[in-house]
Amino acid sequence: MKLILPVITSPARSLYTLLGAVILAIIHQYLFYAHAPGLSIPIFILLFYGFILGFAGDRLHGLSPFAIFMFAVIFMLSITYLLFDNPIFYVLNILIIPTLIAYHVTLLLGYKPRAWWKAGIMKDMLLHLIPRNLRHFPTAFTSITSSYSKRVNEGSRAVSRKILFGLAISAPLVIIVISLLSSADGMFERLMFGIPRWLDEVTYSEGFFRFMWIFLFTLFFFGYVYGFVQPVSARKMDPEIAYWKETNTSTAQEDDISKGEFEWDTGTTVIKDKIHESNSDTLRLRIDPIIASTVLTMVNVVYLVFVILQFTYLFGAFEGALPEGMTYADYARRGFAELMLVALLNFGILMTILLYTENRGSSRLRLFQKGMLYILVICSIIILYSAFSRLTMYEEAYGFTYLRFLVHAFMLLLAVLMVIAGLRIHFERIPLAKCYIVFGLASYVAINYAGMDTYIAEKNIERYHIHQKMDTYFLSSLSMDAVPVLIEFSRENPEIQIDLRADYNRLNEREQAWWSFNLAEYRAHQALKEYFEQE
DSSP label at 358? Predict the structure, then answer.
């Protein structure tokens, strides 16, 4: 889908882009300097996309369904800073969101249109972030000087030169005069010699750091967007036929980017992703189907023996059939890491054989290989289930934590990826890379919205009611998301009230700017206020 955006393409394009970068940098320091992220994250992301599309929108290749999906993922992750207070995702998303934005913008506007599931787009993303960005830092300054030089005639230039010459002559005279007047008047002397001290204060003041913040981010924003406007140096291109020389990409060929057939025309060279893909196919490793079948047979024999002979040991713990001399905690702890590593190894074997085995040989050999792959998938899922059950019992014995919750989620994700790979064995047209990217992104968004702190608090309280065991220190360390649950639990466990009181005092003393607003903190504050006012 093509979009026609109102983009500034006048000769003063660089100057207008610089002005937009300055405004965006001012907003950026206003929202984030000495302020916690909150509502400011989604606000700034919308402004950043407006800036990118407003000044480089004519480089837009098109708007595919995946591009729309990517923007939904980015925006939903940004909203988590408004809705939740989880410390793990607070840090992770600070790293992940900018990476996804850089990937998304490169997909939309990149120098070489790439298929979104190909690894080449990551290289383009880094090129736009660093070398093409840095190359346009001087452009920010030349855009000002060139704009000025176009507006002044030769007479004005002569006047400017004379003024500069006059300033050079008057400088030593001014120094002499200031020295004489300072000797004649004490007040004037204190005023003049107080200037250096005032400058020192300004240099290390908040205003200086804000100015440097704006200056550096202005260069970054300008260089980044102009790296899409002019990704290649004009010296490397024929100005008469260069494709990116202020042309509109809407006139480009309407090839299907998802097939990697988008042409890049500079008048002398035609670059196709399809050519790159065909070249890479000739170089990548190919595995003989007999070798692959042999490896699968040997590995599957071991797994079948493991599953059949020890099936009771793997799953009998739920019925009390533990090995002699082993407690639930020992059973849960023993072998969990090894089983997870085996599952990951199996996933690697499965991907390698599915993607790199040559599609030749007799029909019986191909059928045998598919059967071995199915056995590998089934055994891997059984091993994952065993690890999952061990971790569940470990949580019942020692409690629920962030790490154990995330490991559970990862095992579920790996199981689904195994199932998709199993379907790929029969339905060879299933695009694994596309499915894994989309499902992985959707899963990460889902776990952000899963309410991890609330779940952990509820499960630990359930465990307390059964075993009368509770780590109150860990429970009180959960984020503001868990406060409503902890308030209910504090009525039967007064130890929690001390920590809730500390949270309440901290929220009362905190000065909250509107752009740092967080819904979880607001709800926690209101619930704590109502709770303690009733006492």
Answer: -
SS3 state of residue 123: helix
270 bridge partner residues: 265
Enumerate the H helices of 310-401 as residue ranges: 311-315, 328-333, 336-356, 363-398
Distance CA 303, CA 438 (A): 31
Mean pLDDT by 10 residues, the chain (535 residues): 57 85 95 91 96 90 92 97 94 96 95 88 93 90 66 57 69 70 65 56 68 93 93 54 41 37 35 41 68 88 76 53 59 68 86 83 85 90 85 85 92 92 90 93 96 94 88 89 93 87 88 86 92 78
State residue 343's pLDDT score: 84
- Find out whether 515 and 40 touch, Cβ atoms under 8 Å: yes
Q: How far apart are the C-alpha atoms of 291 and 285, rounded to whole Å?
A: 13
pLDDT at 196: 54
**DSSP-derived secondary structure letter, 325:** T
Task: Report the alpha-carbon distance of residue 139 to residue 226 in Å, rounded.
Answer: 9
* Strand pairing category for 270-272 and 263-265: antiparallel
Q: How far is 392 from 336, CA to CA, in rounded Å? A: 11
Q: What does residue 116 show for φ and ψ, rounded to 5 degrees? A: -65, -20
pLDDT at 187: 65
Q: What number of CA atoms fall less than 13 Å from residue 12's CA on the CB side?
A: 11
Q: What is the 3-state secondary structure (H, E, C) of 165-225?
A: HHHHHHHHHHHHHHHHHHHHCHHHHHHHHHHHHHHHHHHCCHHHHHHHHHHHHHHHHHHHH
- 3-state SS, residue 281: helix
Is residue 369 a contact partner of residue 292, using CB atoms and an 8 Å limit? yes
State which amino acid sits at residue 354: L
Cβ neighbours, 10 Å, residue 200 = 10
CA distance 245 to 248: 9
d(CA 276, CA 120): 10
Global model pTM greater than 0.85: no
From the CB of residue 153, how many other CB atoms can be counted at a distance below 10 Å?
8
- H helix and E strand count, the chain: 23, 2
Q: CA–CA separation, 184 vs 192, rounded Å?
A: 13
Q: What is the dihedral of CA 428, 430, 435, 436, to 10 degrees?
A: 0
3-state secondary structure 297-324: HHHHHHHHHHHHHCHHHHHHHHHCCCCC
